[in-house]
Structure prediction request, 337 residues.
Amino acid sequence: MTFRRVGPLLLVAAGIAGPFVLPQFQSQLAVLWVLVVLALTWDIVGGQMGYNSFGNVLFFGAGMYASAVVQRGLSFGADRYADAAGAAARLSPVEYLSGLALGVAVAALVAVALAVLFGGGVLRLRGHYFAVGTLGLGVAAGEIASGIDWLGAGSGMVTPLFPEALGSHNRFFSFYFLAAAVICFVALQVLYRRRFGLLLNAIRDDEDKAEAMGLPTTRCKVVAWSVAAFFLALTGGAYGNFVGFIDPLDTAFSGATFGVWMVLMAIMGGRGSLWGPVLGAMVFHVTQELFWTYLLGWHRVAMGLLIVAIVIFLPDGILGWFRERRGGAALHAGRGA
Prediction:
């Protein structure tokens, strides 16, 4: 069996065993799977389609707020929830799980609706115009959320407390985000192997020629952005519960962290591939944790130098470098034979 078949199974097995084998790293494992989803979803538009989006954080944050609002509305009024904060927000396991399930479902619908609403206009832009346009969407969303009292405005919003009867908080969300990452990976693998994947690559290679051939490029771009929005909302809808508090600028619509990280991870690993974003997310997360632990105060400098080094010396990403080395070795062996 090749690594292409065994690799996903080994990764899922490690993800399931990780919270039990390394219980002290459960929260880090949960964040790792969140980063994997962020990188995979950015690569749909940024790698497979060639449109550099800096606004995907819009769907992550919108899903976070939509899920929290639904959970609040199931058991509490907005005023009572805000006044009582964490004490009144404690739910039974059944209430919590049902609210979370409904919340992430609504979050996905809201995010897809936003992708369709804005996609028809924004995705007609190209190049740096598209990049700046999507960046503006993410920034505007954060400012709008900061001004809505019903969402806590700039003070943020508390999410329901995790019921102790469900066991470990970090282990629960580690498994949730692992499931989200696996479903996202498998869904994209299926989509990329179909005509949809060919359409994305045709847009990336030469969009004008694709349009001249009669391909529905605009519809394909909107669908691609909607797929990314769907999985971002499924992840963001639960991330608010994971951290316990939603800040409009630092958590939900944080362009300086999640908005930039998803781009960097895909580029580091190798954009335009399925495994590249996964590899990039893992390398990014592990090195970031190590730098935070051992280079506190200089961790941002070290992370920046690492990213610059990878971009300069590995322009096709880590996965691209491995493929080039493997291809060169195979070519050399063939000539030697």
Summary: The chain has one domain: 3-255. The chain has 14 helices and two strands. The CA atoms of residues 109 and 230 lie 7 Å apart.
